[in-house]
Design brief:
59% of the residues lie in helices and 14% in strands. With 215 residues, the protein is α+β, with helices and mostly antiparallel strands. The protein has a domain of 58 residues: Roll (Nucleotide Exchange Factor Grpe, Chain A, domain 2). The N and C termini lie far apart (167 Å).
Length: 215
Amino acid sequence: MRFNSTKASGSSSSESESAEAAKASETAESQEASGPAKPAEGEPAEAEPVENPEITELREKLEKKDKDLAAMRNHYTRAKADFRHLQEMTKVEVQKAKDFALQKFAKELLESVDNFDLALKNVKEETLKTSEEVKNLYDGVDMTRNIFEKTLGKYGISKIEPLDQPFDPNLHEAIFEVAQPDKHPGTVFFVQQNGYTLNDRVLRPAKVGVVKVEE
């Protein structure tokens, strides 16, 4: 009896192909689950993606702009500080110029005040009591002097009152020293010429006589 082997051989080949396909499918699923396959030893690694040249150029320009902006801000801050310093210095210089001009003018006015004081000191009390005309003239000169001194005070010029005050070399100029038993040593007992200050700075020291300190 003879058998037909052709059908059996075709069936075996079909089963073998089905098994290989199933095995390949399982291998592919396993690779997908475990991620991309690593290159075998000795094989070159895949190259990293290259950035677009336009993006690189834009990034470099942006970095340069940031540096330029920081430099400009620093320059602006310095310029602003320098300008404020210049403003302050200008104010000081302008004030100095005003003070100097006022100081020169005030010193000239002090001569007029000295003349008023000199005129009033030279009038004796007996004459004031006996002569009504001299008394009226004296009062007029004294009133004029007071108004004059008030006007000076409006511009920061003040009289130094040294009488019976301790001698201060910053405010007083000692003309002579005399022992005075009834006065405290080192104090001013006589004023030869009044002193004045301009905005709390000595315009002219008072010329005074000082009680001598006993040794």
